[in-house]
Design brief:
By secondary structure, this protein is α+β, with helices and mostly antiparallel strands. It has two domains: 2-280, Butyryl-CoA Dehydrogenase, subunit A, domain 2 (Beta Barrel); 286-469, Up-down Bundle (Butyryl-CoA Dehydrogenase, subunit A, domain 3). 45% of the residues lie in helices and 14% in strands. It has helices at residues 7-10, 17-23, 47-59, 89-105, 118-125, 135-148, 244-249, 273-280, 286-316, 322-347, 360-385, 402-405, 419-433, 436-447, 452-465, 468-473; strands spanning 29-32, 35-36, 69-71, 78-80, 152-157, 176-180, 184-191, 202-208, 220-224, 230-234, 254-264, 268-270, 350-352, 355-357. It has a six-stranded mixed beta sheet with strand order 2-1-10-11-7-6, with no helix packed on it.
C-alpha cells in the first residue's frame, strides 16, 4: 500500500489525500459495467468517491484537526479518534465528535468512509487473546492500520445462492481455504456486496451469515486490494455532473472474486470454526462499535435530508400546511431518535476486553429501528413533496443557455428562492430520494444489518440472558 509508507506516516500522522489516491494505482483488477478500469481514481464512476475520501484524509492535516485525532496505541503517533481503542466514556464522546466531523462533510452519504472499519479492528485489538495463536497479528494490524487510518472494505457476505445450505457445502462459490503453505493461506471463492471495494486499500475478509462447520471455511484476514488473484466487479450507479450527491458520494457494491489468493500468515487472524462462530456472534464487541459509527453517520444523513426537505416545503409554499409540518417533524424526530440511541450507547457503555464498548441494548435497538424508519422517511417525503420532485425539466448548469432561456421564467422560485436555488434544492433532494442513487441508499439502509428477524431474535435473546425478562415478570 503506497500510502502506508508515506512521509506523513513516518512523521507519526495518517496518510494524506495524495497518499491515498496514489495507493489506488497498485495493479488492482476492477471491471465496471463489464469493462476493465485502468486507473480507478480517474474513472468517472469512482473519481467522485475517491476524491471525497482523499478530502477526509486531508482534513486530518488541516488547521484545527486536533479535535479529530487521538494518540496511537504506542503513543508515538496520531490517528483518527475512532481508530483508537477507547478506555472511558469521554473517549467515546471524542470518537462521536470525530465521526461527526467527517460524516457531516459527506452529509452521511458514504457508508464506508475510512473510520468505518475502525469499529472492527479496534474491537479485535481490545480482545487480542481471543485470537489465540494470531494474537500478535491482531496487535500488529492495529499498529499498521491505525497509523495509516487504512481505508478498508469488508468482504463478509456470501453470494445469494444456496443459502439454505451451510457455507461448507457451497464450495464452488463461497470463499474457503484451498491450502496452507509456509508463506500463508491460499483462498478461493467470492464475496458479494463488498461496498467500496474498488476504492478501498484493504479488505477484511471473513464469513458472516451461516455458521461454518469446518475449518476449511473458517478464515478471517486482512488482504490488500491489489493482491494478485483478486478481481472486483461493479455495476453502474449514475454519477453524472447534474446528480450532486451521486457525483461526489456514489459507492459501488462489488462482487469480489478470490482466485487462489495468497494471504501471508502475518495477515491471518482466524483459522478455526469455533473462533469464527464466536467472532460472528459478537464475542469481541465489534457489533456495538459498528452500530455506534453507523448511527453517527445516519444522524448526519438525516440532518441533510431534513434541511433539504424543510427548504423544499418553503419554496413550494406548503410549509404552513399542518400535514406538511407533521411530515417534516416526523423526519426530524427520526434524526433525534438515531442521535439519542447513539448517545445512549455511550451512557450504557461497559468494559469490553481491554477497552470500553458502546452499550449493546441501545446498539441493537438502533439496528432494529433504522431500516424500517428510513424506508418510512423516504415514503413520507415522496407523499408530502409529491410531483415537486419530478418537476426538474433542466439541470442547474443549463440555466442561462440559449436552449433554456425561453423556459426560464417558468422555472422561477418562490418562498424567497430564485430559480437557481429552487433547482439546486430540489435537484439534491431528488437525488437523495428519487434517483437510482436514492433507491440504492434505501436498500443499503434496509439491508445494513442483514435480515431484520435476526436482529429481533438477538434482542429477545439478550433480554433473556441479562435477566431483563425475569425482572419484568415480577
Amino acid at each position: 500500500m503506497a500510502g502506508a509508507a508515506s512521509e506523513a506516516q513516518g512523521a507519526g500522522v495518517p496518510q494524506t489525500g495524495a497518499d491515498y489516491l496514489a495507493s489506488l494505482d497498485d495493479g488492482r483488477v476492477v471491471v465496471h459495467d463489464g469493462q476493465p478500469v485502468d486507473r480507478v481514481a480517474e474513472h468517472p464512476a469512482f473519481a467522485g468517491a475517491a476524491g471525497t475520501i482523499a478530502g477526509l484524509y486531508d482534513a486530518l492535516h488541516a488547521e484545527g484537526s486536533d479535535a479529530l485525532l487521538a494518540p496511537t496505541a504506542d503513543g508515538t503517533g496520531r490517528t483518527h479518534a475512532f481508530w483508537a481503542v477507547p478506555a472511558t466514556r469521554d473517549d467515546l464522546r471524542a470518537q462521536r465528535e470525530a465521526i461527526r466531523a467527517w460524516q457531516r462533510s459527506t452529509r452521511g452519504w458514504m457508508g464506508r468512509t475510512p473510520e468505518f472499519m475502525g469499529s472492527v479492528v479496534t474491537s479485535m485489538a481490545a480482545h487480542p487473546s481471543f485470537f489465540g495463536r494470531f494474537e500478535a497479528n491482531v496487535r500488529a494490524m492495529l499498529d499498521r492500520d491505525q497509523r495509516a487510518v487504512t481505508h478498508y472494505a469488508q468482504a463478509l457476505v456470501n453470494p445469494p445462492v444456496d443459502r439454505e445450505l451451510p457455507p461448507d457445502e457451497v464450495g464452488d462459490v463461497f470463499l474457503h481455504v484451498v491450502r496452507e503453505t509456509d508463506d500463508g493461506v491460499v483462498i478461493r471463492g467470492a464475496k458479494a456486496v463488498v461496498t467500496g471495494a474498488a476504492t478501498a486499500q484493504r479488505l477484511l475478509v471473513s464469513h458472516f451469515g451461516g455458521e461454518v462447520q469446518t475449518d476449511a471455511f473458517a478464515f478471517a484476514g486482512s488482504v490488500a486490494v491489489g493482491t494478485p488473484g483478486i478481481r472486483i466487479y461493479t455495476r453502474g450507479t449514475p454519477a453524472r455532473d447534474d446528480q450532486p450527491l451521486a457525483h461526489r458520494f456514489a459507492e459501488h457494491d462489488a462482487l469480489v472474486v478470490f482466485d487462489d489468493v495468497l494471504v501471508p500468515w502475518e495477515d491471518v487472524v482466524i483459522r478455526d470454526a469455533e473462533t469464527m462462530g464466536a467472532f460472528n456472534r459478537g464475542a469481541v464487541g465489534w457489533n456495538a462499535r459498528l452500530a455506534f459509527q453507523a448511527a453517527t453517520r445516519l444522524e448526519a444523513k438525516l440532518e441533510h435530508i431534513a434541511g433539504l426537505a424543510v427548504r423544499a416545503a418553503e419554496i413550494m409554499g406548503i410549509d404552513e400546511r399542518r400535514g406538511a409540518q407533521a411530515a417534516l417533524g416526523e423526519v426530524i424526530a427520526f434524526r433525534h431518535t438515531v442521535a439519542g440511541l447513539r448517545d445512549a450507547m455511550i451512557e450504557q457503555a461497559e468494559p469490553s476486553g481491554e477497552s470500553i464498548g458502546p452499550g449493546v441494548e441501545a446498539a441493537m435497538a438502533f439496528s432494529a429501528l433504522a431500516p424500517d424508519a428510513y424506508s418510512r422517511m423516504r415514503v413520507t417525503l415522496e407523499t408530502t413533496l409529491s410531483s415537486a420532485f419530478a418537476h426538474l425539466p433542466v439541470p442547474l448548469a443549463s440555466l442561462g443557455t440559449e436552449a433554456v432561456a425561453g423556459v426560464e421564467p417558468l422555472l422561477r422560485g418562490s418562498g424567497g428562492a430564485d430559480a437557481r436555488e429552487r433547482l439546486s434544492v430540489m435537484g439534491e433532494l431528488w437525488d437523495a430520494v428519487g434517483t437510482g442513487f436514492g433507491a440504492r441508499h434505501e436498500l443499503y439502509e434496509r439491508s445494513y444489518w442483514g435480515q431484520p428477524e435476526r436482529t429481533h431474535v438477538g434482542i429477545l435473546g439478550l433480554a433473556r440472558a441479562t435477566g431483563r425478562l425475569d425482572g419484568w415478570r415480577r
